[in-house]
User: Fold these one by one.
Assistant:
Number 1:
Amino acid sequence: MAGAVEAKLAELGLALPDVVPPLASYQPAVRSGVYVYTSGQLPMVDGKLAVTGKVGAEVTPDEARELAKTCALNALAAVKSVAGDLDRIARVVKVVGFVASASDFTGQPGVINGASELLGAVLGDKGVHARSAVGVAVLPLDAPVEVEVQVELVDA
């Protein structure tokens, strides 16, 4: 049964995807006490990267912003896989976003806004968080964007 968070996703025309299987030796998310930490989530849709390349070269900033939303949605799926219910999220504590950037691209914060805005739209005040947006030379599978999320849970 879907809770209020998943109902909000549906209201926004979104559905929680299946958890993206790990590409290497790690777990998509782990819980430690009241916190859930996700591994970096790529913009995978149905088991494939939607787009590859560097932002500011093969990928536009607007495309990358949308891909960051997909990463955040995948992160929520990973959180649910260990928390059991997204309604247990007390707040999003931190988001870290990585943007595979062309050498002259400096708009990483705008790209990662896609993830931040999705979390805010879905979780309201609980989605407000600290954040880092980092430009990198390359990401796994030539992904343009990767996002990791840390959330605090309410004990149930």
Number 2:
Amino acid sequence: MSDLLERLRGRGWRVTAQRRVVAEVLDGDHVHLTADEVLERATARLPEISRATVYNTLGELVSLGEVVEVATDGRAKRYDPNAHRPHQHLVCSGCGIIRDVHPAGDPLADLPDAERFGFAVSAAEVTYRGICPDCART
């Protein structure tokens, strides 16, 4: 069973065939699929699944905090199932591929007090940008 599906079952989430397929499609490391990519992979496994069901399920997973919406550079939103594993993202400026990265250090601690402007900072999102090896070859 997928890690995401296990977490959802632990929360008492009603697992229908359609929801199960969406959760299974999202399972794995470095998974950052668009809604259309989730739909494409889900219909390969369960042809009768509808676009509305996939989009509604993604929205519900985001609302539950089990999946994170990742938006980069005006591209289509991507869905990251690693919501419970602290990480940052590395994004290719060419093709848009996203990889999870785990840099040493704490981005919250790296923000000096003088730059907090009185905010009680509770989270930080760091995105590293560059060119992936495939785009660098072209």
